[in-house]
Amino acid sequence: MEEAKNKTILIVDDDKFLLNMYRMKFAESGFVVETATSGQETLQILRTGTSPQILMLDMVMPGMDGIELLETIRKEKLASSAHVVILSNQSQASDMDKAKEFGIDGYIVKATSIPSEVVQEVIKVIKVKN
Q: Which residues are in coiled coils (predicted)?
């Protein structure tokens, strides 16, 4: 897929099974995939100057949740040009609204989307934003 070719996506999820599944699906679509299993690991990666085009964040993680992570990323101006997509099982409007306050580009509910649909949604975000 042309939109995905050589685009770097950093997928953040504490569920290693899901992380590996999404890593495979995005790689199959032409993305360069990096992963992190926690907010702290994500910040370490971004603070080294890594600047993915897409950040896909889980909301519920131990230690630092997706909103706290996004807040820190924004405050420190890390990956400032990255499209941010939340991938979460949190489907309440209040969770979505809280995420939108930080200028996210998309919100995908895990339970209602199969991995190939998640990839398609991310590609849609890239198309819309470019």
A: none
**Alpha-carbon gap, residue 27 to 48, rounded angstroms:** 23
What domains can you pick out in the chain, each with its CATH number? Answer: 8-129 (3.40.50.2300)
Report pLDDT digits (tens) over 47-66: 998 889 999 999 888 889 88
Among 57, 107, 111, which residue's Cα sits nearest to residue 79?
A: 57
Summarised one tens digit per residue, pLDDT across range 76-91 is: 999 989 999 999 887 7
For strand 32-36 and strand 54-57, is the pairing parallel, antiparallel, or unpaired? unpaired
Q: How far apart are CA 104 and CA 48, in angstroms?
A: 22
CA angle 20, 31, 128 (to 5 degrees): 115
- Give the percent of the chain with pLDDT over 90: 62
